Amino acid sequence: MTRLMILAASVREGRIGLPIAEWVHGEAQADGRFEVDFADLKQIALPLMDEPNHPKLRQYTQEHTKAWSARVEAAEGFVFVQPEYNYSFAPSLKNALDYLHQEWRRKPVGTVSYGGISGGTRGATAIRPVEMALGLVPTTVNIELAWAAQRIGDEGDFEPTENNERLLRAMLDEIAQLHVALSPLRA
Fold first, then answer.
1. 35 to each of 26, 55, 96, 144, how far by Cα in Å?
2. How far is C-alpha 172 from the chain's CA centre?
3. What's the number of domains the chain is made of?
4. Phi, psi of 27 (to 5 degrees)
């Protein structure tokens, strides 16, 4: 089984990203090919980068960094559930990425973005150079949820469309395939 981290990037109070991430989490668990780690950046609560050494050195001094490093190192693939803020990415996601370096290398990453009319496309595009610099390998299938707040039901759950579900299955397929292809490069 592929160890897949679902990362909820928004830390705002009342965020719609949490029910979206919970939908992704449920689908990945039901898929049967993944051991899923649900990483909520709000709960993890990493402070702004506070390590004295460059992350490439892996000479971490803070307990929160050591815990984050172990968790990311254990993952073999990722799905980032991320908002678009002011035509860009969430600073909480950038901070979480910047804490580490080697732990991200040669692992697949899929994106579920959300926002207004663009569905978070600009935020997902803006973070791509950072992902590439860290050695993450993006999937070609990504999900962009336009006006996602309108699909949060009365119970607070995200209500995906058939197309959202189809795209998520395709993304999970691609993550599983990329994991197999990239594993020898990580060895």
1. 11, 27, 21, 24
2. 13
3. 1
4. -65, -40
